[in-house]
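Encode chain A's predicted structure.
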Amino acid sequence: MLKISAEVISDFTEDGYLLVPSVFYPEEMAVCKKEAKLLVESKTGPSGVFVWMCDSIPQLFETISCDPRIVSILQRLIGPRVEFLSAKPVFKSSRISFASPWHQDQAYWGGSTKYSSWIALEDATLENGCLRVIPGSHRKTRDHALVKDIIGFTNRVSDDELNEEMILDVTMKCGDILIFHDRLLHSSYPNQSGH
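Encoded structure for chain A:
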């Protein structure tokens, strides 16, 4: 089991996110990527983001989401009761290369606080569209503009609203996990890798 120190928990509380390296093995992620790719390639959509997908490949998502390695991390961060809500594959390719706009996930699902566990099925780089976060931004709710376009991120925070806040690019290696609060402001780069 991975050790999560009191200092790491304090940083998570302060910053609203935690990057945990090497939780899963590349071989495990290759199986997940293959299954997720089959799933998303059978769907259509300009953004490459597919929500509420856990029923589509239940064994895959249940295996990963209930794995003791991730459960033990979440229990240290948020307490003993961990409930799985949804699986959301994000797929970027040479055809689907979108950049997600700045947003807080809570603007989409409301209710009590929820945490995302973003698992890198392959390396996430600046070139292929890694996430960007604003540390500490989870401490307040932001106004989101309602935008209708083909990409599908209808709730967005304008770049003009960021006011020189510190933006951190979150590059990840295959098997890393990024756990973040649903009010953490985040976006992603477009995929410019051609893959």
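The chain has five helices and eight strands.
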